[in-house]
Design goal:
The chain is an alpha/beta fold. The chain has 2 domains: 177 residues, Alpha-Beta Complex (Aspartate Aminotransferase, domain 1), CATH 3.90.1150; 247 residues, Aspartate Aminotransferase, domain 2, CATH 3.40.640.10. It contains 14 helices and 16 strands. The protein has a 7-stranded mixed β-sheet, with helices on both faces. Strands 1-2-3-15 form a 4-stranded mixed β-sheet. A 3-stranded antiparallel β-sheet has the order 13-14-16, with helices on one face. β13 and β14 form a beta hairpin. The protein is globular. It starts with 8 loop residues before the first helix and ends with a helix.
């Protein structure tokens, strides 16, 4: 490691200032709209995290198609962010749009099923291996509903998650280990209760801690991403999932796998790619080509227990559901997406591009002698500013370099490439090309050269 090259922090500071000036100069229309928006939108954006982009203001978008979009200043970008997985299908995929428009013309919500729901249920069975499914509006809802069901079925009140997990805005999951003590994640806004009262939290890959947490028999469910994705990609150790499954069965704890981001591993997510055996599975974001929709599935045993413990006369007010959940538009969009967009062939293409992206960045890192590395999960790849892959969320959080992150993101954006804003991650759309990936490799090399 002594021979590895370090970046010049003074050059980094200067290069970031240059990129910020360039961004402002090249996006006058976005800046003007941002100033206008402040008069009616909190912080000038419709959702607060939209201010967390690398530029001095967010881009305002005109339109998008496939793996590209255009901003209001007429600049085109290769999109490797893809709505942080929500647009993993690519923007406005033709096959989905046709089905969505047809459904819009025929009514969107009835509080009654359509035939599309049967097709979707059978396809979810095929992809993920669980026999029974329900539909929600978002992955957050799917996770909340799965947790409630787990508590109902087990009679236990606690859940367990991985440190620095991401499961949407589920109250119980906005928790980290702070100086060895579980507590609210930094920035947790107005928690109803201290999440340590509802949730146990352990590091991924720490089987001893997992076993200690579950042995008392007071945890209803373990809710996990099979690999961490929102603190950067942190992969499980070999054998971790098999041991996790064994421990949860020994302790009577239900296992819920959240595939909302890890669907990047393949058509059936990490679960199918690696033969996992969850009791429940949740997924949202890309499965309806951008139309809000999510699903959660169960084993036959869990489904039987749900039926036996549910009073249908009060099911509509029991904390699970929603007037728009399972609406006709969402089901039509899901059917088209699963049938014609997020196909086995599409994943073969995007996973190959993910590998090409990782190899291109890794080649530059080695060429420049940097103490960085690349991690990949299917068609998702990420570069880190540390020499070895973090083994858990705590190590991943400690490896973050905010100034360097901002510079690399903004340098890419100024060169027509959008990365996921909260870390250095790229996701491949079915319409992306090898040339798109190679363009990023060259932009990455150029950005690195400027700070050495």
């Amino acid at each position: 490691m002594a021979n590895l090259r370090q970046i010049d922090r003074n050059r980094l500071t200067a290069a970031l200032a240059d990129e910020r000036r360039r961004f402002v100069a090249e996006h006058p229309r976005s800046q003007a709209l941002f100033e206008q928006a402040k008069s009616s939108l909190l912080d000038g954006v419709p959702m607060n995290w939209m201010i967390r982009w690398a530029g001095d203001f967010p881009l305002f978008i005109k339109d998008g198609s496939g793996a590209r979009f255009t901003d209001v200043d007429g600049r085109e970008y290769i999109d490797f962010c893809l709505g942080d997985t929500g647009a993993m299908t690519g923007h406005a995929p033709k096959e989905s749009i046709e089905a969505i428009v047809e459904r819009l013309r025929s009514g969107t919500t009835f509080m009654l099923p359509t035939e599309d729901s049967i097709w979707v249920g059978r396809e979810l069975q095929r992809r993920f291996g669980l026999p029974y499914w329900q539909v929600a509006m978002t992955a957050t809802d799917a996770n909340r509903f799965a947790i409630r069901l787990a508590r109902q079925l087990t009679g236990r009140k606690l859940i367990l998650v991985h440190n620095w997990c991401y499961h949407g805005t589920v109250d119980e999951t906005i928790i980290t280990i702070n100086n060895g003590v579980p507590g609210p994640k930094p920035g947790n806004i107005g928690p109803a209760v201290d999440p340590a009262l509802t949730t146990k939290v352990v590091e991924i890959n720490d089987l001893a801690a997992l076993k200690r947490a579950l042995e008392p028999g007071d945890v209803a469910c373990v809710l996990i991403e099979p690999a961490l994705t929102n603190i950067g990609i942190v992969l499980p150790d070999p054998g971790y999932h098999a041991a996790l499954r064994a421990i949860t069965r020994e302790t009577g704890t239900l296992l819920i796998i959240d595939e909302t981001h890890t669907i990047c591993a393949g058509p059936g997510g990490y679960t199918r790619a690696y033969g996992l055996e969850p009791d429940m599975l949740t997924i949202g974001k890309p499965i309806a080509s951008g139309v809000p929709a999510a699903v959660y599935g169960f084993t036959r045993e869990v489904a039987d227990r749900i039926r036996a413990s549910t009073d249908k006369n009060t099911a509509d007010t029991g904390g699970i559901g929603g007037t728009l959940a399972g609406n006709a538009l969402a089901l039509a969009a899901m059917r088209a997406t699963l049938d014609k967009v997020l196909t086995d062939r599409a994943f073969e293409h995007t996973i190959a591009l993910g590998q090409r992206f990782a190899e291109g960045v890794d080649g530059v890192i080695k060429e420049k002698g940097l103490p960085w590395h690349v991690t990949r999960l299917g068609c998702r790849a990420e570069y880190w500013f540390c020499p070895r892959p973090p083994r858990n969320g705590g190590e991943a959080a400690a490896a973050i370099d905010p100034e360097l992150d901002r510079y690399m993101h903004l340098a890419a954006l100024n060169r027509g490439i959008l990365m996921t804003p909260f870390h250095n991650m790229a996701l491949m759309a079915p319409q992306a090309t090898a040339a798109d990936v190679d363009r990023h490799t060259e932009a990455f090399r150029e950005s690195v050269d400027a700070i050495l």
